[in-house]
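pasting input
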Amino acid sequence: MRTDELINTLVADHAVQPRPKSVAHGLVMAIIGGLAISAALFLSTLGVRPDILSALSTWRFDLKLSVNVVLAIAATWVALRLSNPTTTPLSAMRALLVPALLLLGAVVYELITIPASAWPSRAMGVNGVMCFASIIFLSVLPFMATIYALRQGAPASPAVMGAVGGLLAGGLGATVFAMHCTNDSPLFVAIWYVLAIGLIAMFGLVVGRHALRW
Amino acid sequence: MEQQRVHDRDWIWAGWMRAANAGDEIAYRRLLAALAPLLRQVVQRGFARSRFGSCDVEDVVQEALLAIHLKRQTWDEGEAITPWVTAIARHKLIDSLRRRGRHVELPIGDLIDVLPAETATEDLSSRDAERLLSVLSGRQRDVVHAISIEGISARETADRFGISEGAVRVALHRGLSALAVSYRDLNQ
């Protein structure tokens, strides 16, 4: 095929859809869709904790929720920046420091304000493994939707993009799960939530290498 | 001076791309035709620096054009277009060098004698790329062939194959996506 023949084809295809939907459009749809299905699954299995209203007035619960929401927002922002091939991965990923520092600050505060003898029980909480598994379970559909949407992008590093997609999906799954979970200590969040979300991000790294190649 | 020229050129190209986004086909054709020499330059330089010579420059140029087309939604209308185009070309170049890296059997010294020097028909891709069309399924191949090689319109293509114009468009778009995948797997 000659290059000018290829150009004929591209122009003909362009005429059909001059402006394909932006990555942002697809990603927002994926987040809404993934979150909706995940929330439906959540309500039909685990359900919201009974004392949600009183929990909402404690800083620990609010912080747990905020860390996950902020992570999802930061990861969305980073993923959109990474979808442009001119973005260097490291510079874009700085936004992820926001949720990380938020959690770190809370952990330090918790360590200072509660006696050392209470640290292990706070960190281990009640059934951390179930929490870990639930976050992963609730993140699966958001993960698939997110990766699918990110295929529209042109990331300099598909693997990094996949990992950020994993963080986004993990943040969404964890936000939903946080409504059920009664372990509110930042120490618990820093271990079990971070482990679960980290694993999804690692999975995203591997999947992204192949699924987000372009 | 040179910087000013590049800046002006970018300004014109960005204008064409914005017009293309608004539905101007002629501007889009102009843009792609103007980008091809730049892509060729980027790819040629990349190949020259590597040990692979310039055997398949045009394949990579075409792959980059296809990527620019399929990823045009990632260009932000507010930014310069040259860096975006160059980033895509570099991505495709690195990808193709990596792919070819696994299959180089001859040292470059031997290769130079075999390779033709700069040929006149520089925009003709290698026979490998020619074979790409054969990976497309029947309808997609017919449509892509009619529009690319014969250069006829979607309307005429629809009439010839007795299908709707919508079906032509779908076949064309799917064909291009499939083509992008097979470029990637070329020489693998």
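fyi The mean pLDDT of chain A is 94.
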